[in-house]
Amino acid sequence: MSVMPAELQAINISKQFGGLSALDQVSLTLRPGEVHGLIGPNGSGKTTLLNLLSGYYQPTSGSIKLGDEDLSLASVQRRAAVGVARTFQKPRLLPMLSVLENATLGAWSHSESGFVASAVSLPSVAREDKKFLDQTTELLHGVGLGHVIHRRANLLDHAEQRFLEIARGLAMRPSFILLDEPAGGLTTQEIEHLSQVIHTLRSSGIGVLLVEHHTDFVFRISDRVTTLNVGKMIKHGASDEVRTDPEVIRVYLGA
Amino acid sequence: MNSQTTKVLSLLVGAILIATLPFWAGDQYQLHLAALIAVYWILIAGLNLVVGFTGQLSIGHVGLLSIGSYTFAILAGKMGVDPTLSVFVSGLLGGLCGLALGLPSLRLPGFYFAMATMAFSMIVNEIVLAQVDLTGGGIGLPGPMFPKPFDSPIGFYYLVTAIALFVTWLTWNIARRMWGRAFISIRDNPVAAQAVGVPVFKAKLLAFVFSGITAGVSGAVFASLQSYITPDTFVFELSMFFFVCIIIGGRGSIIGPFLGTVVLTALPELVSPLAKLGNFFYGLLLLVVVLVVPEGIGRMFEIISERLRPRIVHREPITPDLNRLAKALKGHE
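Above: the input entities. Below: the structure tokens describing the complete assembly.
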């Protein structure tokens, strides 16, 4: 048995929609405790890859593995249960529930309370729910949402929604979290706070996939970066190495 | 007075009103109405998990009510089975029929699901009409009484109120914890529900089977309250009535749909000019609620007070507490 924590891998993965090839033979390895940036122009397949990793799409060919477990065809729910969390480009929250309730939903996979046990409110159910609420309260204070913990989610501003999505993902206690353009629409200061949060996730051993448009931000905080262009991988490697690659500069940065 | 105290006080007042109702209700008819509200509420409380929380638009619950009623009338009436046992069988059969209906239909998108449930209630009615030997066909069946002490109007009122309170307690327990959050996530954002691992179909099915059980139980006591049931008792309008009670009351709330049930059942009966309006009254009320307070009458006071005295939302910057975050993440291990 290996003591190394498992890696989340996409191996030679392709995805076609009808006749359109969205991704062509792309590979990517996400390691625990590492920030992995994924950049590329619009339509280069970044979000497609994220959807393949989180299970919203199934690959046309190639495979997705977590350690030795093949997840290629596993449901979204299965991936949540084995510790792959994600956020969305456009925050997907429950508008009528409080920030605390929204984040606590993330603990769903860890709940052992059955429907019948919950209906009759067994003491174990009440204890478990209290534990979840306490844990998410800590997480919310941690990401900086302590001041809005009881506010309804539809009253949050954009940045608060983005941070709440991350908190909900963290309530899943994931090994990996896939962030889909988390810096979109944030101010410089908020982006700074976001990168501090991401650093903390990294040092806690969580693997972070960062899909972003803000290339400065990505190169600054990523350990490794993968660059896509029209569904093909053009370069992957250490952050500095990718930043100075002539091909990357040509298709993306140079413009 | 903070909101917690207000809540406890209103619950206390409500409990006293419900417990003492037979002593202040004007006449037998008002007591009958109160019992009818409780009977309807047994069904609506369960349906509320499906419609109000999970957001699945079932308009066929009159079919499940009918199944519960006929089961009770056949078992307790024709076959002489113990009425209490018959209620349990009605609930069980309601749950099984809910399962049989939910399994194929809950994967359908909203509009088609609604059509499937409507078709189900029509089919049930046709079967009841056709099975003359069992159900009495168009002539119907007597709904047997419960044994002492529940054979009097007051006794029956307390019986159905106790069942209604029990069902309310069950749904409240579900609604306020993880299952409630999961149901609401299915209603408001199925993609997010999946992302956190909620088994969407299974959760919908559980809510639906639960509502089938409560519909079956409600049907059993409904048959007894009506004292005689025919296929005409279970008209499609009744299904819409259940649905409208929840929408008028407000989705994602328990007290709202309860108020909806009380208002829609009692008002047309107690205020005679409204009775003349009949379905017009329901239609008008529905229109007003959907246009003016789409959140439902359960939240009406909250919304009006918010409008009169708009709360200033203080914007504070997001300042992460990284030590606390690291600790929270470690605490998870």
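Note for the figure: The two ends of chain B are 41 Å apart (CA to CA).
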